[in-house]
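look at this one:
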Amino acid sequence: MLAFALAAVLTSGAPSSCPADPLVTNARLKIVRADSRTDNYVVTVDVKNGGVDAQPTDTTQHLELVRAGTRIGSQPVPALGPSQSYVAAFRVQLPHARPRAPFAVTLRYVLDSKNAARANCSTANDVLSATL
């Protein structure tokens, strides 16, 4: 009986589920050699709605690719349903180098709409830094 009462107390103070919450995860890098002077890189990342509700259909949002403090790419992200994922990809050209130096980037989710409470209830997972 004590365990049941303790469980009831703990659950009553639990936070409610997040309605819509985009998460930026799983950054990946693919290298495609262009010629002896330039390499083409493709950086992909998953954006997933980790919330229990869909984002409003009028939600406007995008993902930014940042390297050394400079935005080098931007891509719109559609409104996401619950547990729905979107794969964003960015193409970057860099001088060819052997060995290839680590490629450090930051991926930032940006909500352009003014409906933050319904489209993104938490900013905890809106930025992902990765060394690829």
